[in-house]
Specification:
- The structure is a single chain.
- By secondary structure, the chain is of the alpha+beta class.
- The protein folds into 2 domains: about 5-275, Hsp33 domain (3-Layer(bab) Sandwich); about 280-335, Alpha-Beta Complex (CBS domain Like), CATH 3.90.1280.10.
- The protein is built from 11 helices and 14 strands.
- It has helices at about 5-10, 35-45, 55-75, 120-125, 165-175, 220-235, 240-245, 245-255, 280-290, 290-300, 320-330; strands at about 15-20, 25-35, 80-85, 90-100, 105-110, 130-140, 150-155, 180-185, 190-200, 260, 265, 275, 305-310, 315-320.
- The strands form 3 sheets. Strands 1, 2, 8, 9, 10 and 11 form a 6-stranded antiparallel β-sheet that branches.
- It starts with a helix and ends in an 11-residue tail after the last helix.
């Protein structure tokens, strides 16, 4: 059954499927973001301050959301994976944050007009200064521990601009993680989807351990051929197929000759889903961080201080009474109070 048919029957749910190629150092994952992705776009479109995203921005941000879900699902990490693209085009920054439980949120800051058909370079890499970063921010940090961050350019070694987000992320995985990776990504105003194929180390846990330990002794060239063959199969998946076909159909079309071990799919409450962890308390600390004098100066010119969450669109307002209570409760006088953001 096609995705369109399933949606007509009311099966509009996100899902993520993971699998291993038996006896080979290769793993894969397929993700479809539907309800959570639709909620992000709905909130953005209903925000009177920003309005909705242009189609090229939707595609870029949706592909980022699918890629972040795939990468987060493949690591054992208790914290947030933050994927960012920033540069010098009309899209100043695009951010997707995915938690360990696959709850995600996404936003893009757009200044100016994004033309129909705009490419990645045209949106964020006009002057070839665009960058892509991946940050792993632990939920619980040791004393002095900082988040890990890797950054790659949006151009290749010869300085040529890269217009494919999947190519940028494949480059990141090779450079920062030493893992050959094939990514196929697609997104529109209803679906954000992605397929990941990744070569695993020849020695390690899971797929290459225990009963499969003999794989380690195989000829490296043969292992390369297996990965390359599977990567080529993945590359044959077209954008429209990824957006319109259900996961079972995609798996049959691509890997019907392969022996796979498939894991329980993540659906429903365990699937990737929209969630924003902003709160009035956190925003209040940001207001405190401005300092008592600065807050008083702002309120002398307007009735309240309005702070909107860039991710979910919720607006938080603090009037003179709210501000007085903030500083009375904390005893804060200004930025030197070290109020936490």
């Amino acid at each position: 059954m096609s995705v369109a048919a399933r949606e007509m029957k009311g099966y509009l749910v996100s899902e993520l499927h993971k699998f291993l190629f038996d006896g080979l150092p290769v793993r894969g994952a397929l993700v479809r973001l539907t309800d959570g992705w639709a909620e992000i776009l709905r909130r953005r479109a209903s925000n009177s301050h920003t309005g909705g995203y242009a189609a090229p921005v939707q595609q870029m941000l949706g592909e980022m959301a699918a890629a972040a879900a795939l990468m987060q699902s493949n690591i054992k990490f208790d914290g947030a994976l933050v994927l960012q693209i920033f540069g010098d085009g009309p899209v100043k920054v695009a951010v997707v944050e995915t938690q360990a439980d696959l709850a995600f949120r996404a936003t893009a800051s757009v200044v100016g007009v994004v033309d129909d058909g705009a490419t990645l370079s045209g949106m964020v890499n006009v002057g070839n200064r665009g960058r892509c970063s991946i940050t792993l921010d632990p939920k619980t940090k040791f004393a002095g521990q900082q988040p890990y961050q890797g950054v790659v350019s949006l151009s290749d070694d010869q300085g040529h601009k890269i217009d494919s987000l999947s190519a940028v992320l494949e480059c990141y995985m090779r450079q920062s993680e030493q893992l050959d990776t094939k990514l196929v990504l697609a997104a529109n105003d209803r679906v954000a989807a992605g397929l990941l194929i990744q070569r695993l180390p020849m020695q390690g846990r899971g797929n290459l351990e225990g009963s499969l330990a003999s794989v380690v002794t195989e000829n490296r060239m043969e292992l390369d051929e297996h990965y390359n063959r599977i990567a080529i199969l993945a590359s044959s998946l077209k954008r429209e197929e990824l957006l319109t076909l259900d996961i079972e159909t995609i798996m049959r079309r691509l890997f019907w000759e392969e022996s796979l071990t498939r894991f329980e799919p993540l659906q429903g409450d365990s699937a990737p889903r929209f969630s924003c962890n902003c709160s009035r308390e956190r925003v209040a600390k940001m207001v405190q961080g401005l300092g008592k004098d600065e807050v008083a100066s702002i309120l002398s010119e307007r009735d309240d201080i309005e702070v909107g969450c860039e991710f979910c669109g919720v607006q938080y307002r603090f009037d003179a009474v709210d501000a007085a209570q903030l500083f009375m409760a904390s005893g804060a006088q200004g930025p030197a109070s070290n109020a936490k953001h």
